[in-house]
Design goal:
The chain has 117 residues and is mainly alpha-helical. 62% of the residues lie in helices and 10% in strands. The protein has a 3-stranded antiparallel β-sheet with strand order 1-3-2. The longest helix is centred in the last third of the chain and has 25 residues. The protein is globular, with a radius of gyration of 17 Å. One of its GO terms (molecular function) is DNA binding. This is HxlR family transcriptional regulator.
Length: 117
Amino acid sequence: MSPVLPLPVTTAERETCAATDILRMVGEKWSVLVLVILRDGGPSGFNRLDRTIEGLSRRILTRTLRNLESHGLISREETPQHVEYAITDAGRSLLPLIIAVGEWAIEHAARQASGLR
């Protein structure tokens, strides 16, 4: 199998890697939850998202939405009275990969709890 990365991996290579950027973003506490809510519940305004996610401050919701939008995973449409967020095709295509990681984690957590490796 050929290596995924040239070795040694430099700090500059790690910091400029597109995968590193996306992994940081999806590893952030609220990003995946917002993507799933927008996928399952359809486009949503800021206040609806704020009411839907318990324990998430408005400041962090704002930051999370901006981050997801900057990565092209959600869109933001503004009208004079309303701002609406929706998941994009890129966001929709990322979710199965994230869900697979979650399923892997659940499977392995059950194995570890039972003492299996």
